[in-house]
Amino acid sequence: MQKRQKPVLHSQRFLPNSRMHARGWMYVLLVVFAISGARAQTSRADSAVSYIARGKTWYDKGDVERAIADFNLALTFDPRSAAAYCNRGLARIAQQDISGAMADYDRAIEINPRLAEAYNNRALAWQNQGDLARSFADFDHALKLNSRFAAVWYNRGLAWQVTGNLDKAISDYNHAIEINSHYAEAYLNRGSARQAKGDIDGALSDLNQAVALFSKGTTIHPSAALAYNNRGVLRKAKKDLSGARADFDRAIALDPKLAVAYSNRGNIALGQKELGQASTDFDRAIALDPRRAESYHNRGLARQRQNDLSAAIADYSQAIALNPRLSEAYFNRGLIQYSLGDLGSATADFDRVIELNPRQADAYAARGLVWLLQGKEIEAERDFEQCLKLNKDLKPLLNARITEIKQRLTKKP
């Protein structure tokens, strides 16, 4: 049987999934056309072109092994086909053969130093290996060769975004969109960068455009679900909860394995006190992505509000194991420890919150209440003073809690 909760200063802290997610890199697969004329002299080259075309078809269908086999045949007929090396490099990337891909890109560039596509793809391989300097050098060289290459602007923009340079990222996405006004992925990622800079309206405009572009045609684009999810995040930020929920529903319908969409929808249900629905969505999010600390934290919050305190503690503890700097999980776990009378564990959790976030006023208040319950009035007073120094608005509630605890202590025999 659960112990009755003691009065606390602050309600549980909710952790929103406010981050939008960016779409990945854009590799370029070359299409090579045969040139008519001089048939006897070009028959081998024409055969190479045919195998390159068929290899591309296999690659587009997801059959990487057959694609590589055809690119190999193309090179048998034309050992100096830069396009065949470039395309085989991309297929090797799909097989996680990074060293083989790099060798192919190097050879393609050696044969044709003006092949911008090879520089673009090699730049992405450098990214995969964590060599950002060489990656940016290849992107820059590709743009020198072809300043109208929208995919390179896009990829370099994403590289800037990954390294945290949002202004340069947005500038590169602008170039990509200027060249190709229907570049849905560029709108998607520019929206993500704008949201990170606090430009919610600009981000929402980009996501509206991305959703519209991804929704064209009869084939579902692989990024459509992510676009709806990201727009839902923005609509939630604008307090449009029904619109946000509709977007998360649509994202899940398009991609039932998109864990973040379940987590985001669960957050809305949690905010609207639909605790059963919230728990169901968090369960699904965790099943799909068990490394996401925020999902465990928010499921813990749903369980805490359902008074399933042991399960809530387990979720907070797992969130902390995945992200030891998640201060909200320590705070909420501390509240439960406090309510159960485990004052030592509660103090340890509030200590950690204050260590991670020294300006969190309610953590000082909560720890002060624990000190007061333990009869450590000097420590308690010090924490209360710090709490009010950080947030004077907490004074009426804090005074009420202090009075309540002192009255309880005086009634003890």
Distance between the termini: 25 Å
> Biggest sheet, open or closed, and with what strands and sense?
none
By secondary-structure content and strand pairing, the structural class works out as mainly alpha
User: How much of the sequence is in beta strands?
Assistant: under 5%
CA-based shape: elongated
Number of helices: 21
Radius of gyration: 28 Å
Q: What string gives the helices and strands in order?
A: HHHHHHHHHHHHHHHHHHHHH
Total strands: 0
Share of residues in helices: over 70%
* Unreliable spans: 1-11, 13-19, 32-41
**Overall mean confidence score, pLDDT:** 90
What can you tell me about this protein's structure?
With 413 residues, the chain is mainly α. 72% of the residues lie in helices and 0% in strands. It has 21 helices and no strands. Helix 5 runs antiparallel to helix 6 and helix 16 runs antiparallel to helix 17. The chain is elongated and about 105 Å long. The chain starts with 38 loop residues before the first helix and ends with a helix. 47% of the residues are buried.
